[in-house]
Amino acid sequence: MTEDLEEGNLIFKAEAFLSYVVLSSWRDSIVVLKSCEKLSPWAENLQIVRRCSESIAWKACANPKGIRWSYTGRTAKISSPKWNDMKDSSPSRNQQVPPDWWFEDASILRIDHFVRVITAIKVKGMRFELVGASIMHYATKWLPGLISDTAIPGDEASNCSMSNSSSSGGSSWKGGLHMVVTGTKDDTSSLQAKEQRMIIESLVSIIPPQKDSVSCSFLLRLLRMAIMLKVAPALVTELEKRVGMQFEQATLADLLIPSYNKGETMYDVDLVQRLLEHFIIQEHTESSSPSRQSFSDKQHMGMGCILNAKARVARLVDSYLTEVSRDRNLSLTKFQVLAEALPESARTCDDGLYRAIDSYLKAHPTLSEHERKRLCRVMDCQKLSIDACLHAAQNERLPLRVVVQVLFAEQVKISNALASSSVKDVESESHAMVTNRKTLLEGTPQSFQEGWTAAKKDINTLKFELESVKAKYMELQNDMASLQKQFDKMLKQKHTSAWSSGWKKLSKLGRTTHLVENQDDSPEIQDSLEQNRKTTRRWRNSIS
C-alpha cells in the first residue's frame, strides 16, 4: 500500500482522490465528513475530519457569486458539480445566491463536526451575523423543543436525536467505537435528553461574542431548554449574561419561563430578576466605558440609546409583573424587588406598574393595610396619566392615603400647567383646541361624539368633586387652627392660676408686715396683733 515497492499504490491514490476530487467539491466534502461519523477515531487520526472541515469553511466563506449548483441539502437528483465547475448551461446561473446557502448542508452534520466547521469558519473571518444565523438554523433542526414547549416531543425528536447521535441508528458517540443501545422507552428518553443537553452545551460554546449575533428570543428559548435539561450551571450563567446584553429585544412570551425546580411560583421570577441585573450591569458598563466618553456626539447618542433601552425594558418588566401577579403564590417581596430593580429614570410613566399593582391586589385580597401601602410604594403617583388617575381615584382596593396622593398629584399638575402658561398662550391654545375640536367632531361619527360628551361630563364632575374636597380640606385646616388657639389659651390659664395663688399669699404677707410697721398709729391694731400672738403661742404649747 505504500510507495516503497512501486509508485501509485493505494495510499497515494487515496490521497490524490481526497485532495483533488473530494476536497474540491462542496457536496463530496459534506458527504465524506458525514461518513466519518461511523469512523470517528480513524478519521480523526488520519486528519480527514480536519481537512474536510477546513474545505467546507473555505467554500462557505468564498464569494457566493461563483456558486452555480443546486444545494446538497435540498436532495438534488443528480450529483452536484465540482467547486470550480461554472458551466453556461447551469439553470441557476442568472439567479442570485443567498448568503445563507450553506446552512442546510452544514446542518446535516453531527454536533461535534458542526462545531469543527463553525470554528474554522470563524477563523476565516465570516460575519458574526451569518455564523449566529447558522447556529440558530442548526438548533431549530436538532432541538425541536425550541419551537414547542417540550424538549422531547415524541417520535420526531427521537428520530432527529438518534440520527444526530449516529447515522447507523441507536448508537452513542464519544469519539470511540459505537455500541448499539437497546432498552426501554425510559432509557431512550434519557438518552435523548443527554444528547440534547450535549447539543445545547456545544452550541452555547460557539456562539459569537458580539451582541446581535443571535436573537434574544433564540437565547431565551435555549435558556429554557438548558434549565429544563439541567445543563451545566456555568453555561446557564453564560446564557443569562448573553440575554442580559440584549434584554431590551425580549418579548413577554419568551420571558414566561415555567419554574422547573418545583418552586412555589408558576413562573421563574428569580430568573427574570437575574436577567434584569445582568442588563443593568451591562448598561452601566457601556455608559461608563472610555470609548463613549471620548467623543461627545457618540456619548449623547449612546446615552439616548441606553435610555430608550431602559424604557423598553421597563415596559417589558411591567407587562411581566402584570402577568405573574395573578399567581397567588407570588410573594410581595419578590414583586417589590422586581419592580424596584430598575432606576426611577427608566419609567417616564407608571401606568403599566399601576396595572400590575392592581392585578396583584385583585389576586391577593387578603393583604393587610400595611402590605397594601408597602406594595403601592413602588409606584410614583406623579407619573400616572389622566386615565390612570381617574381609575385610581375610584379604586377601592388602593389604600386611602394613595388615593389622596393621586388626587393631590393631579391637582399639582393642573396648577403647574396653569402657572407656567401665560394668558395669551392660554387664549391661543384654547382657540386652537376649539378649532381642532370642531374639525374632529365634524369628522367623527355620532357614537364617538356621544362618548366624548359623556367623558367630558365625567371629567367636569370629577373636577367639581376635587374642588369640594379641597374646600373641605381648607375648612378642616381652619378648624384645626382655631382648636390649636383654644388649646394654647387653656394652657396659659393653667400657668397663670398657679402663679396668681402664689402672688396672693405673698401679698397677704406683705400686708401683715405693713401693719406691723404702722403699729404706733393704730393701737387697736396692736391689740389685735397681741391677741393673735397669744393664740399662736397657746396652739404651739398645746402641740408640744
Written overview of the protein:
- The protein has 544 residues and is mostly helical.
- 67% of the residues lie in helices and 1% in strands.
- It has helices at residues 10-22, 26-35, 40-45, 48-61, 103-106, 111-124, 128-142, 155-165, 185-206, 216-228, 233-245, 252-255, 269-287, 290-294, 296-324, 332-339, 351-363, 369-376, 386-393, 400-420, 423-443, 446-517, 523-543, and strands spanning 171-172, 179-180.
- A two-stranded antiparallel sheet has the order 1-2.
- Helix 2 (26-35) packs antiparallel against helix 4 (48-61), helix 6 (111-124) packs parallel to helix 9 (185-206) and helix 11 packs across helix 13 (269-287).
- The longest helix has 72 residues, at 446-517.
Features:
single chain; 544 residues; mainly alpha; disordered C terminus
Strand order in the largest sheet: 1-2
What is the 3D form?
Answer: elongated
- The average pLDDT value, as a whole number, equals 76
**Total strand count, please?**
2
Low-confidence residue ranges: 73-92, 150-163, 165-183, 292-303, 436-445, 537-544
Order of helices and strands: HHHHHHHHEEHHHHHHHHHHHHHHH
Contiguous helical run count: 23
Largest sheet: 2 strands, antiparallel
Radius of gyration: 43 Å
Task: Calculate the terminal CA-CA distance, rounded to whole Å.
Answer: 148 Å
Specify the structural class: mainly alpha
Report the sheet-strand fraction.
under 5%
Determine the fraction of residues in helical runs and give it as a percent range.
55-70%
